[in-house]
Amino acid sequence: GTLDINRRDEIGQLAKSFQTMVHKLDENDRIRKEFISDVSHDFQSPLLNIKGYAELLMNSDLAEQERTSYAKVIQNETERLSSLTKQLLLLTSLDQLTAPLEVKLFRLDVQLKEIIRRNRWLLEEKGMSLTMDIDEVEFRGDPAFLEKVWENLLSNALKYTENDGLIDIDLVKEKDHAVISFRDNGIGIEDKELTRVFDRFYRADDSRTQEIGGTGLGLSIVQQVVRLHGGMVEVVSNKGIGTTFVVKLPTM
Ligand code: ADP
Fold it and tell me: Whose CA is nearest to atom 16 of ligand 1?
């Protein structure tokens, strides 16, 4: 009678929630596997380059110029490995909240300009133009973490924009906020992927298929650090036209 029906209902519901759970687990599993394969690839390719160029360097009759250029590859690849490792460690520490903010009073505009200066050679290498409009802003926050935010946003704008593209960086001082925006005219992000780009390990289809290197960790670090400062980050994008990330940080 009714009992049986209820039973069947319960079992039906149980089966359904198992299905949802398994689906979620599958999805997590898929994301994790993809992540491991991305990270392995990210470690593997610089390691192979280092090994290859180190072998070339052992050849004694190299011209001075060749030797320097091989050594430079090794240096760059080592830096890539080190930044990847740092990114993974930073994310872990943000995660476990073992890294409380070290708050200091500093000039946000000076920090932004310094990061732009540091990346000049990359911009030049890609033939990119950069415009900026930067207000003077005194800010209370963790400079080391915030530096990571600007670095990640700038490196994305560079990575996901074709050669000769445009990047615009603005810092606007509002009454009780600092508004920082990074705009590019790069590959853009599909609407349906927009909400997911801040997810850990998430990479839009294009970035994977076009084999642009990355881990999908950069924007989740951006979001976590901004949130830890009581701020928020938003993205606006048009496929094939460009992307703008806007960070809003409270200044009081
Ligand atoms: P990563 O760049 O290492 O893949 P991120 O977390 O920094 O990871 O970014 C997640 C994804 O968001 C990227 O893989 C890319 O698909 C997309 N994305 C981020 N920034 C941009 C941008 N400026 N233009 C287009 N796509 C972007």
Answer: 204
